[in-house]
Amino acid sequence: VNAPEGSLPKAEVSAILNGLADPVLFLSLDAKVVGANLPALKLLDYTADAIEGLPLERLLQCKSLAHLLSQRLLTGRFKNFHTQFRSRLGETLAVSLTNTVLHNALDAPVGVVLTARDFGEMEQLYGQLVQSAKMTALGHMAAGIAHEINNPLTSVLALCELNLELTQEPDLRADLEVMRDQAVRIKDVVQRLLELARSQADMRYLEVNLNDLLHSALSVIGNELHVGRITLELQLAEPLGLTLSDPHHLRQVLVNLLVNACKAMPDGGTLTVRTFTVQDRLCAQIEDTGIGISPENLERIFDPFFTTRATGQGTGLGLALCQTIMRGLGGEITVSSVVGQGSKFTVQLPFLHPAVQDLGWQALQSAQDRRTTVRVDNEIEVQFSADQGEVAVLTQDLGAGGLRVFHTQNLDEDQEYLLKLRLGTEQLDVSSRVAWQRYDAERGRHEIGFQFLRMNAEQQQRLQAHLDAAVAAGSPILGRRRFARVPRLMFLDVRLAGDTREVTSGVVLDLSGTGAKILCSRRFEPGTRLTLHLELQEGTTHELACITRWSTLRSQSQGGHRHLHGVEFERFAPDLQAIIDEYLADRAVLRQVDVLEGLRRLLGGENQE
Amino acid sequence: MSEKPRVVILDDETMIGKVLRRAVGPEFDTQVFEEPVAALDCIRNQAPWLVFLDVKLSDADGFEVLRQILAVQADTRVVLMSGFLEPEIRERAEREAFAFLQKPFHLREVVALLDRRRALGDDSP
Question: What chain B residue is nearest to A548 in terms of C-alpha separation?
Fold first, then answer.
């Protein structure tokens, strides 16, 4: 058939057909295949030559239906007709079919186009939709009932504890302790329900090294491994590369899977932890040699409240939470298991979140066009003052004073550069040091991380305001992150006194929040009350009440140990806050290196004592 | 001052008030209220040593009541309590009030709060 005047050339028609996502078959009037587009060939697993001439019934699982369809191809009209294709190897494929009859110029039928929609994928999507609807409904419910449960629970818990203080009678005490523990259990279930509901909303993306994260998660289950006589086998790919993800949530998933694996091996066994890459994805695999999961349970394993453990042993929320988190991170979690042999959970993550990746590319493209300055959507425009050429910028984690730039050439590491940030119509010049860089061979570009050196409170505020505005405007990348204020780290000479004894003479402070990290030689129970002597000006000491929140032991290479304490202040008096603000404004942002030097000085000084 | 320090509890759940009064202990003169008007009167007249205030009252918002309390007695130390688990509520409470107490709470958490308050010294009139 010759193409009529004005219609597209054949090559283009073929390109269009192959570019469609849906499989398309071309049938002759006697229901034989005369052609198929690429998606159809892929789905059915035929080559173009092999499929030609096949009767339609060879491609459908149900013979009688095939017969009926073959007869009605011309006269009948079906749309989204759900049936099953049969692949070359006999595999069943769920599809929905739609037919269109082709006519020639004389309006006589010449053939039929059969469009098949791959329904298997739709079914999968539908399954995900149902799962996500379940989670959303659960979330709404959980938030509502949390309050209703927690209030009455307050009385139960408090009365148990009050009465435990009043009685020494052993039987009664035992009962009260059971009541208290059960009340705490209810509290935990409510807490986890809410975590589940919230897990998708509250993602904070940072650079993550999956191997590091696994090591950190493994440290949590050290005791379980030892007590449970479980051998740990690590097969971690090195170097694995970084990914952009939410480390807190991801770690939660890994810990959950590791704990589950241990529980699946009550008589001991081998826990194998692997990391590897598959195309553009990072994978972590956790395999046990435990009891395994039956096929019918495997189907429901990610459902909320589904548990195979005895009542009271599990909430049935752990894996549901894992799945919600992984989907929220643009990844996936899968499982395979054989009863009696063990289970294997695989967590997959994109190397870079798609939204971020696109932005980076786009920025680089426009960089090459314009040479000097670059705009990244509604974000920050950056140029270097020196002749370093073009850059594209992707703001990242200003909370840690960082900024990441995609650049086409190498910069000197540890060298300071002047970055001209264009914020809308304003310009902000910030001095920055190259903190790290690496070459991305695949994209032919350098990724460079900057550390802001001299940004004062006012500059910080302007940048933050700009970022806030970008978030409000729905910037695709900024909306996913939270930009904390640049932490104000500094080294001060202070004395810390608990009871009557002085315990240390140095402190690292983060006064922007209410926290402080204090290094001293003695351990305090969390909750201990201390007085902090803060010397901001020469000869003027301020005293602050504070309470220790956490405490940890740091080993020193010289064999000594130091305790590191987190301290929380009582609210600063307004006048003291003003003094602190003034002190900080004066010094802009203090370099982290100062803190390290300060610590070194402090440690050195104490060692000599 | 030989009088016992005064503690005010404002929660629309009767049981919470009763239980919290016992948790605070007999060394305090504790008054329990279920609605804000009477509680505010008491706070204005007696400048309590510590106030426990529920974030969600049946007829008022705890944060608004907090604002009113600070308006009548600027240096009142208020502990906001809530059975809601949203981190935003905790963050806001920790910013605007003396402390936040998550329901359900352990006795030791109440004791720790009283200790924190003691650490500030007795600045009641």
Answer: B116
Indicate whether B43 pLDDT > 70: yes
Contact call for residues A294 and A286 (beta carbons, < 8 A) = no
Instruction: Give, in order, the Cα–Cα distances in Å from A437 to each of A203, A444, A499.
Output: 26, 13, 49
Q: Which of A176-185, A391-400, B28-37, B67-76 has the lowest mean pLDDT?
A: A391-400
pLDDT band (50, 70, 90) for residue B75 = confident
A595 vs A490: CA distance, rounded Å: 6
Using the beta-carbon criterion (under 8 Å), do A161 and B106 form an inter-chain contact?
yes
| Token code pair at residue A10 | 């054949």
| Cβ distance of A156 and B84 shorter than 8 Å | no
Q: What is the DSSP letter of A479?
A: G
Select from B115, B109, B45 the least CA-distant residue to B81.
B109
Q: Is the pLDDT of residue A399 over 60?
A: no
Which of B9, B12, B19 is the best substitution to test chain A (most A C-beta atoms within 10 A)?
Answer: B19
Between the alpha carbon of residue A237 and those of residues A214, A288, A332, the distances in Å are 12, 19, 20
Residue range A421-466, pLDDT digits in tens: 655 566 667 666 666 666 655 555 566 666 555 566 677 667 666 6
Q: Closest Cα of chain B to A79: distance in Å? A: 48
Which of B103, B109, B116, B120 best tests the A interface by mutation, with the highest count of A CBs <10 A?
A: B103
B83 to A146: CB separation less than 8 angstroms, yes or no = yes
| Residue A598 to residue A591: CA distance in whole angstroms | 11
